[in-house]
Amino acid sequence: FDPRHYLGTHCYGFPKTGPHRLRFLLESVKDLRETLKKKGSTLVVRKGKPEDVVRDLITQLGSVSAVAFHEEVRELL
C-alpha cells in the first residue's frame, strides 16, 4: 500500500482513496491472501513507497531474477 494513494488530490484536496474504497481494497487483499493460502502460496503485503519496498524485498530475498509491475494511469488535466 503506497501511502501517497491516501493523500488529497492535487486540484481539489479530496482523498484519493475514501473509507469505502479502502475497506474494499483491504477485504479484497484479505480474500486474495486466503485464496492463495488454500493453494499453498502466500501474498506479501507491505506499506510504503513501492520503489523502497520492492528494493528492500529484493535485498531480503536475495535470489530475485525478475520483477514485474504496472504503473497506475494518471489523469490528464
From TrEMBL:
Keywords: Chromophore. GO terms for molecular function: damaged DNA binding; deoxyribodipyrimidine photo-lyase activity; FAD binding. The keyword Iron does not apply. InterPro entries: Crypto/Photolyase_N_sf (IPR036155), Cryptochrome/DNA_photolyase_1 (IPR002081), DNA_photolyase_N (IPR006050), Rossmann-like_a/b/a_fold (IPR014729). GO terms for biological process: photoreactive repair. The keyword Magnesium does not apply. Coiled coil: none annotated. Residues 1-77 form the Photolyase/cryptochrome alpha/beta domain. This is CRYD protein. It comes from Serilophus lunatus. The lineage of its organism: Eukaryota, Metazoa, Chordata, Craniata, Vertebrata.
